[in-house]
Amino acid sequence: MKRRIFFTTAALGTAGLTSAKALTTPSAPNNKFDLKHNINHSVCRWCFNDIPWESFLATLNDIGIKALDLTGPEDWPLMKKYNIHASMCWGAEINLTDGWNDPQFHPTLIKNYTEMIPKVADAGYTNLICFSGNRRGIDDYVGLQNCVDGLSQVLPLAEKHGVVLQMELFNQINHPDYMCDSTLWGVELCRRLDTENFKLLYDIYHMQIQEGDIIRTIQEYHPYFGHYHTAGVPGRHEIDESQELYYPAIMKAILDTGFKGYVAQEFIVTWENKIDALKDAFKRCDV
Question: pLDDT tens digit string along 5-17?
Fold first, then answer.
């Protein structure tokens, strides 16, 4: 073959494939939606905020999903009506950047968590999210000890009420300067606090960007992980073939550790039918 003929033909072939892909839309899952439920499935509410709240709860009932992430006391009464569990509560944090690593925020955080922990327990829930906050020039070792000092003020109350505080791991692309951006930093915090009432929320999307090596990390450090979030890399979109992670293998690795907690979908939907995208994600994770 002559090089010029080869490259011309290849270019035309590539253009044809690109055009075909552009005309292809994701196929909807089968109408029959049966899950094994070896994985305890959940979904983050904020990703589907444009769907009317009660309609979304009814849809979750229809497809057999019984948990929602990142909800607060104002959401719980309607969730109880639809028998939807709050798998990760929020409402005690200040925001994502002002957290436990900086003592100036401790008085507010201690007050907030002291008030919220009993509410979570009284509602029949377990998990309550928290954040390290941004560095703002604070050394990581100093920030680690600051987190220990602050969290130690509320963890006895969490232990009393059976509530587990879970600090989420973030990447530095989406959350510049956030301190809890390393599995090892988070694990060291867990070790220093030395309680089953403090765990890490291992966000697979964030940690693929920040560290990679997802399955080995889960296998080695799973005792410190109390909850998981999903999304596709790059873009934080669907967990289908458009992204680089193979979620069935990741879910199998989680299942093999004996994990009994929740895995919550937290991706930004691009499909026209958002519920079909969500059902597709659940199927891929239902190993």
Answer: 333 344 444 444 3
